[in-house]
Amino acid sequence: MQLYNMCYTFHMRIERSFWSRWAQFLQHWGLTEIVATLLEAMGPLNIIFAQFVFIGQPFLGKAGSPNQWEALASLLENQEESRSFAAFLREGNSQ
Protein backbone atom coordinates (compact mmCIF):
# COMPACT_ATOMS: atom_id res chain seq x y z
CA MET A 1 0.00 0.00 0.00
CA GLN A 2 1.41 3.36 -1.02
CA LEU A 3 0.89 6.46 1.11
CA TYR A 4 0.58 9.90 -0.44
CA ASN A 5 1.41 13.21 1.19
CA MET A 6 -1.88 15.05 1.21
CA CYS A 7 -0.64 18.03 3.21
CA TYR A 8 -1.64 21.20 1.38
CA THR A 9 1.01 23.34 3.05
CA PHE A 10 3.77 21.00 1.84
CA HIS A 11 2.65 21.36 -1.78
CA MET A 12 2.15 25.09 -1.36
CA ARG A 13 5.74 25.44 -0.10
CA ILE A 14 7.06 23.57 -3.14
CA GLU A 15 5.01 25.70 -5.52
CA ARG A 16 6.05 28.94 -3.82
CA SER A 17 9.70 27.92 -4.00
CA PHE A 18 9.65 29.05 -7.63
CA TRP A 19 8.27 32.50 -6.86
CA SER A 20 11.63 34.19 -6.30
CA ARG A 21 13.02 32.83 -9.56
CA TRP A 22 9.90 33.90 -11.47
CA ALA A 23 9.99 37.35 -9.87
CA GLN A 24 13.64 37.81 -10.87
CA PHE A 25 12.85 36.78 -14.44
CA LEU A 26 9.90 39.17 -14.65
CA GLN A 27 11.86 42.01 -13.08
CA HIS A 28 14.74 41.45 -15.51
CA TRP A 29 12.35 41.89 -18.45
CA GLY A 30 10.36 44.74 -16.85
CA LEU A 31 7.16 42.68 -16.69
CA THR A 32 6.56 42.64 -12.93
CA GLU A 33 3.76 45.20 -12.76
CA ILE A 34 2.07 43.99 -15.95
CA VAL A 35 1.98 40.37 -14.78
CA ALA A 36 0.79 41.35 -11.28
CA THR A 37 -2.04 43.40 -12.80
CA LEU A 38 -3.02 40.61 -15.18
CA LEU A 39 -3.04 38.01 -12.41
CA GLU A 40 -5.45 40.14 -10.41
CA ALA A 41 -7.60 41.35 -13.30
CA MET A 42 -8.02 38.12 -15.26
CA GLY A 43 -9.71 36.29 -12.38
CA PRO A 44 -11.57 33.24 -13.72
CA LEU A 45 -9.78 33.42 -17.08
CA ASN A 46 -6.61 32.33 -15.29
CA ILE A 47 -8.15 28.85 -15.09
CA ILE A 48 -8.21 28.70 -18.89
CA PHE A 49 -4.56 29.78 -19.04
CA ALA A 50 -3.75 27.09 -16.47
CA GLN A 51 -5.25 24.50 -18.79
CA PHE A 52 -3.07 25.77 -21.65
CA VAL A 53 -0.03 25.36 -19.40
CA PHE A 54 -1.06 21.79 -18.53
CA ILE A 55 -1.67 20.94 -22.19
CA GLY A 56 1.52 22.66 -23.33
CA GLN A 57 3.84 21.00 -20.82
CA PRO A 58 5.29 18.55 -23.36
CA PHE A 59 6.18 21.46 -25.64
CA LEU A 60 7.39 23.75 -22.86
CA GLY A 61 9.49 21.07 -21.17
CA LYS A 62 12.85 22.42 -22.30
CA ALA A 63 12.02 25.95 -21.14
CA GLY A 64 11.71 24.86 -17.50
CA SER A 65 11.26 21.91 -15.22
CA PRO A 66 7.95 20.00 -15.23
CA ASN A 67 7.55 20.91 -11.54
CA GLN A 68 7.83 24.56 -12.43
CA TRP A 69 5.12 24.31 -15.10
CA GLU A 70 2.85 22.41 -12.72
CA ALA A 71 3.43 25.09 -10.07
CA LEU A 72 2.52 27.81 -12.57
CA ALA A 73 -0.64 26.00 -13.62
CA SER A 74 -1.63 25.47 -9.97
CA LEU A 75 -1.01 29.14 -9.25
CA LEU A 76 -3.24 30.15 -12.15
CA GLU A 77 -6.01 27.79 -11.04
CA ASN A 78 -6.12 29.20 -7.52
CA GLN A 79 -7.29 32.83 -7.35
CA GLU A 80 -6.01 33.28 -3.81
CA GLU A 81 -2.54 32.06 -4.82
CA SER A 82 -2.62 34.28 -7.91
CA ARG A 83 -3.37 37.31 -5.75
CA SER A 84 -0.66 36.29 -3.28
CA PHE A 85 1.90 36.02 -6.08
CA ALA A 86 0.80 39.40 -7.47
CA ALA A 87 1.32 40.91 -4.00
CA PHE A 88 4.70 39.15 -3.78
CA LEU A 89 5.70 40.70 -7.11
CA ARG A 90 4.64 44.17 -6.05
CA GLU A 91 6.35 43.79 -2.68
CA GLY A 92 9.63 42.89 -4.36
CA ASN A 93 9.20 45.60 -6.96
CA SER A 94 8.76 48.33 -4.34
CA GLN A 95 12.11 47.57 -2.68
If you had to describe this structure to a student in words, what would you say it looks like?
- With 95 residues, this protein is mostly helical.
- The chain has a domain at 32-93.
- The chain has six helices and no strands.
- Helix 5 (66-77) crosses helix 6.
Note the topology:
Layout: H1 8-16, H2 19-28, H3 32-42, H4 45-60, H5 66-77, H6 79-93
Helix pairs in contact: 3-6, 4-5, 5-6
- Report the order of strands and helices: HHHHHH
The stretches of 5 or more residues where confidence is low (pLDDT under 50) are 1-11
Shape: globular
Count of runs of 4 or more consecutive helical residues: 6
Task: Describe, in short, the structure shown.
This protein has 95 residues and is mainly α. Helices cover 77% and strands 0% of the residues.
